[in-house]
Amino acid sequence: MIVSLQEMQEDIFHRFTAQTNGGDFGIIQIDFPLNTEILNVSLVHYKAKNVTYKFSFTSVQSYMVIQENLPDETREGLKYSNEFKSVILKELLGSKYMKYLNQWTDLRIFFDDLSSQSIKHYCVYAQNIIVNIITDKIPMIEIFED
User: Measured between alpha carbons, how far is 49 from 110 in angstroms, rounded to an integer?
Assistant: First the structure.
């Protein structure tokens, strides 16, 4: 079932508790088939492995998986979008990853024109793993239940 970010967040809090956070989830699959160029990230809650939350990102400019390295949000000055934020999927504003891509990679072309206003940095948060995604499309969110 395709849902909005708000519907997904309400589903998480309804199934679990309002204290649920990204550390309660584990990524079960990261898939980036080159023939479709759609990055899929699927997570499950440790107490309900029959419910899968899947994020599909199209038009991916860059992505990075970080394992065993959760950020110190205060020290690093991370800022999240107020419009696009949940416990497992967030949009970061002014991130170091975006600055790095702009300054040190050939992805500079995406930052030099009007498209730079639509380029977003999303993060999927799970226990011990963060997936950073740079894209100009809002991800599709799906919930699957066995």
Answer: 38
Dihedral over Cα of 30, 32, 80, 75: its sign: positive
3-class DSSP state of 38: coil
The CA distance from 120 to 138, in Å, is: 8
| CA dist., res. 61 & res. 120, Å (int) | 10
The closest of 133, 136, 128, 125 to 40, measured between CA atoms, is 133
Pairing state between β 48-57 and 60-67: unpaired
- pLDDT per residue, tens digit, the chain (146 aa), is 999 999 999 999 999 999 999 999 999 999 998 888 899 999 999 999 999 999 999 989 889 998 866 665 665 667 888 888 899 999 998 888 888 887 777 765 666 654 556 789 999 999 889 999 999 899 999 999 98
